[in-house]
């Protein structure tokens, strides 16, 4: 059975002075302290320098107060994260999973885009923040390795059937008209029941810091143990009844921008934030965009009813022959239509009422019945039609959501098994 020693964190582990973290008063003592072992993970070590650098990165990127109290409070969770990363990288190495430089470049580009940077500014940006680029690179590589490993390890177990997708979409369609909320989460799991109080204390501190202005997304990336941590804890758009009952009850009370107190579930402690709300709705037909072509034949106010019937039949004859908008334009000209055939592109809702009712259900290539106007008779053909957007997810989006949920559960179990099988010894 692997031996696991409970971590004892020295009060003097980290202090902050003049914006830089130090642990000793002299250069020699400082160097010696940095070489100390913070933890042993199987046959590899995590140094005090590794721990110090990661604490500083977490404080800066999460916009937490830069002081010794913050550093000391964060140290247990940060060390745990480093230990988990070490286990993940060891497992990736055992199974010959690696990350190419091109994959790292894409990850750097994603970080640049997320922070509004131009391509190639990654290292300069990190350095200007006062963070060691090597520390960020290590975390980035570990996240990529773990994601790739989980995908490869469990791909055959994560197969979403068409029936599951259809059932999920049907449930969403049945919920049309209900309020959805955009929810993000931070999950702190409890592996050792004797350490639950430490987890609760950390959760409360994180809530306090986020409410004080720290970035929820940045804190989630550094502390959350959910699979969505790398996207700032974003769960996406959800209805309350899609969440665990304990979470649903809280989400219903949160307004946009609110952050919950820590919520205890069987998984651990959750911190939730609502960033937006909307009503789940079907597409509005009036928001469809259509391009129309017309045939118009005039009728003078002095013309009798017979003349109007004649023009109506002439319009009907044109639309009966036309199979495309180009052909409609040619036939309209031959019939003596005095106006340009192209009516341009409009939203259905923006059209005059008498025209809107005629074209609302027409598809591309279909023509309306003749429409009486005060000065003539017209008919239109739909040349192009763009469907209105819906906030109901499409089947591909639903499939990805279901896959991500399943991968998250498997990843949590995988990491738990790695922890239980490992030799982990903490020395600070």
TrEMBL record:
Signal sequence region: 1-20
Keyword Zinc carried by entry: no
InterPro entries in UniProt: OMP_Chaperone_SurA, PPIase_dom_sf, PPIase_PpiC, SurA_N, Trigger_fact/SurA_dom_sf
Gene3D superfamilies named in the record: 3.10.50.40, Porin chaperone SurA, peptide-binding domain
Entry keywords, A to Z: Chaperone, Isomerase, Periplasm, Rotamase, Signal
Presence of the UniProt keyword Electron transport in the record: no
SUPFAM superfamilies xref list: FKBP-like, Triger factor/SurA peptide-binding domain-like
All copies of domain PpiC, residue ranges: 178-276
Coiled coil: none
MF-aspect GO terms: peptidyl-prolyl cis-trans isomerase activity
Protein name: Parvulin-like PPIase
Biological classification of the source: Bacteria, Pseudomonadati, Pseudomonadota, Alphaproteobacteria, Rhodospirillales
